[in-house]
Amino acid sequence: MPSFTGKIILITGASSGIGAETAVQFAASGCGGLALVGRNKDNLDAVCQQCQEKGMPKEKVLGIIADMAKEEEVQRIMDSTIQQFGQLDVLVNNAGMGGVKSLADDDILTIYDTVIKVNVRSMLQLTQLAVPYLTKTKGSVVNNSSVCASRTLPTMISYNMSKAAVTQFTRCTALELAEKQIRVNEVNPGSILTPVHVKSGRADNVIETAKKVHALGRIGETSEVAKAILFLASDDASFITGTSLAVDGGRHIMCPR
Ligand SMILES: NC(=O)c1ccc[n+]([C@@H]2O[C@H](COP(=O)([O-])OP(=O)(O)OC[C@H]3O[C@@H](n4cnc5c(N)ncnc54)[C@H](OP(=O)(O)O)[C@@H]3O)[C@@H](O)[C@H]2O)c1
After folding, report:
1. pLDDT by residue (tens digit) across 57-98?
2. DSSP 121
3. pLDDT at 144
4. pLDDT in tens, 14-27
5. Residue 221 maps to which CATH number?
6. Rounded to 5 degrees, what are φ and ψ at 148?
7. Residue bearing the CA closest to ligand 1, atom 45
8. Which residue, 193, 188, 199, is CA-closest to 20?
9. How far is the CA of 30 from the centre of ligand 1 (A)?
């Protein structure tokens, strides 16, 4: 596991799934502090507790309840993080939502606006707010995109578009921030078993489909994505910026028939 001794890590979408596991892995790495963002207080409290069980002192794990769709709450995330820790080394832009709609749905614009706000706009805002602090630490950013940045899930037009935007965002910001020695990368997960599938009632279906659409013949685990995020965030990836790392069991190279 890479070392993050003394480093302050901010993770959005840390109350569930990939973000929660990423928080626990950073805690186990012995990092200096964690700022964890989510909306569901019970879930976020449980993740903060798990991080403490990995050896993090209570005051080094800050839970922040915030809605990424609200500009003033995104501002509050950065303000609270700096107020508590005084620095930022790693930003993990992980929060995201789906949104099943297609052109046939009259209300597609409503879901499109929400998905873009949560998956893309908040990422841009939070990253912009983080730049002064990441400049001081020569820190790094890891975004959570998706295999859907380049492949197309049916009835998920807004989600697919948002994740393609995340990939361009990763490249644009990597280029812009390189002169400050801030690295920006992304992971592109395939199907990963998380509460998002359980909540949709489609977990069994997703597990079965995953056997066919991933070359490795199975669904992925949150720990597999979290490890990739920690790698990209760490000094082990010191000459890597602007990259999209597929964590998808080979799904992006497939054309099943
Ligand atoms: N699971 C997959 O198969 C898969 C594949 C590719 C990419 N991804 C990406 O991985 C990321 C994490 O997804 P997951 O599968 O781990 O899903 P998840 O278990 O549902 O977690 C989503 C996280 O995002 C947070 N979130 C969503 N909307 C938010 C909002 N408006 N404001 C604040 N927080 C918000 C949730 O917070 P609360 O629950 O507290 O509201 C939760 O912590 C997403 O960006 C997703 O697109 C997932």
Report:
1. 999 999 999 999 999 999 999 999 999 999 999 999 999 999
2. I
3. 98
4. 999 999 999 999 99
5. 3.40.50.720
6. -70, -5
7. 96
8. 193
9. 24
